[in-house]
Specification:
Elements lengths: L1 H16 L8 H4 L8 E10 L11 H15 L13 E10 L11 E5 L10 E2 L7
Antiparallel strand pairs: 1-2, 1-4, 2-3
C-alpha cells in the first residue's frame, strides 16, 4: 500500500513540475554574417482589367507596353496600335529571403506604374525580376 502511494505521489509531483517543451529555432535567434535578403524589382503587365487599366495616352506608356509585348511574346506592334484600357503597366517588388529554395513562394507587391484606376481582377503576366 505504501509503495503504491509513493509511486502515485511521485507521479503527481512529476506532473506538477513538468512544463511543455518549447524549442526555439536557431534561425529565429541568430543571424549569419554576410547573409541578407535580396530586394527584387521588375516591370510587367497586368491584363484582363475591366476598363480600369492605363489610359495609354502617354507615348511613354504606349512604348513600354509595346516593348514588353515584343520582348515577351515576339509580337511586333507599334505603340500607336495600343488603345485598350484593359492592360496596365506595373512595377513588381519583393524581397528574396536568404536561403530561399527553388520553387518556394515569396510575397510580391504589384503597383501601377502609370494611371490605372484599379488592378482588381487582372492577371499579372510572368515578370522577370532582378536584384
Amino acid at each position: 500500500m505504501f509503495r503504491q502511494l509513493a509511486v502515485l505521489l511521485s507521479f503527481v509531483v512529476a506532473l506538477v513540475f513538468a512544463s511543455s517543451a518549447h524549442a526555439d529555432r536557431i534561425k529565429d535567434l541568430a543571424t549569419i554574417r554576410g547573409v541578407a535578403s535580396n530586394p527584387l524589382v521588375g516591370y510587367g503587365l497586368v491584363v484582363g482589367l475591366a476598363g480600369t487599366g492605363d489610359n495609354l495616352q502617354s507615348a511613354q506608356t504606349q512604348q513600354m507596353v509595346a516593348n514588353l509585348l515584343g520582348r515577351r511574346f515576339g509580337t511586333i506592334i507599334t505603340p500607336q496600335q495600343i488603345k485598350a484600357k484593359n492592360v496596365a503597366v506595373v512595377m513588381v517588388t519583393s524581397r528574396l529571403p536568404a536561403f530561399a529554395r527553388i520553387g518556394g513562394r515569396i510575397d510580391v507587391t504589384v503597383s501601377s506604374a502609370s494611371n490605372a484606376k484599379s488592378l482588381f481582377g487582372g492577371t499579372l503576366l510572368p515578370t522577370a525580376m532582378k536584384g
